[in-house]
Amino acid sequence: MIPIALDPRFVRLAVVGHGARAARRHAALLAAGAQDVRWFPDASACAQGLSNWHALWLVDLPAEVAQALAMQARSAGVLVNVEDSPALCDFHSMAEVRRGDLLLTVSTAGAAPGLARVIRGHLEARFGEEWGGRVAEVRRMRQHWRDAGVAPSDTARRIEALATERGWLA
């Protein structure tokens, strides 16, 4: 697996499936800032325009339908995630904790999603809502230092010293 964070403003995403899990996936993509995300309750409705999408999540579809649609999508150059079928996935959705611009993710490459959820719960408890403000503060300081001509290596040292001084990770 290659970890990557996509800016959802620049990708076209689709969810195919019905039920609560498909609704959760669609809502999660919207919450992550996706602006061009579509939800198709019916696989045949999406199959017509597969090349319109960059990434496709298939949720709660019969295995034969998911496999066929995944193959069609790949042929159209679309990345595919078939929930609960790691062998059919080009990528895996990660368990995530969002605190403002801080995004912490956990992946087991689809091998143990329940374990990823347990670890996510630990991270949620350890990294509270205050981290959104911390990241915003460091962003402002970093920009000020960059504007003042501080070298990137010195900026990194200052950020590390700030986190240590304030005991953020103690």
- CATH architecture call of the largest domain: 3-Layer(aba) Sandwich
Question: Ends: how far apart?
Answer: 30 Å
Q: Which CATH top level class of the largest domain fits?
A: Alpha Beta
Q: Mean of residue pLDDT?
A: 93
Instruction: Give the biggest sheet.
Output: 4 strands, parallel
Gross morphology is elongated
Strand order of the largest sheet: 2-1-3-4
Structural class by sheet pairing and helices:
alpha/beta
Q: Report the CATH topology name of the largest domain.
A: Rossmann fold
Helical stretch tally: 6
Could you state the order of secondary-structure elements as H and E? Answer: EHEHEHEEEHHH
Helix content: 40-55%
Low-confidence stretches: none
Explained architecture:
- The protein is α/β, with parallel strands linked by helices and 170 residues long.
- It has three domains: 8-93, Rossmann fold (3-Layer(aba) Sandwich); 94-128, Double Stranded RNA Binding Domain, CATH 3.30.160; 130-165, no CATH class.
- 45% of the residues lie in helices and 16% in strands.
- It is built from six helices and six strands, in the order E-H-E-H-E-H-E-E-E-H-H-H.
- It has a four-stranded parallel beta sheet with strand order 2-1-3-4, with helices on both faces.
- Strand 1, helix 1 (20-31) and strand 2 form a beta-alpha-beta unit.
- The longest helix has 18 residues, at 130-147.
- It is elongated, with a radius of gyration of 19 Å.
- It starts with 12 loop residues before the first strand and ends in a 5-residue tail after the last helix.
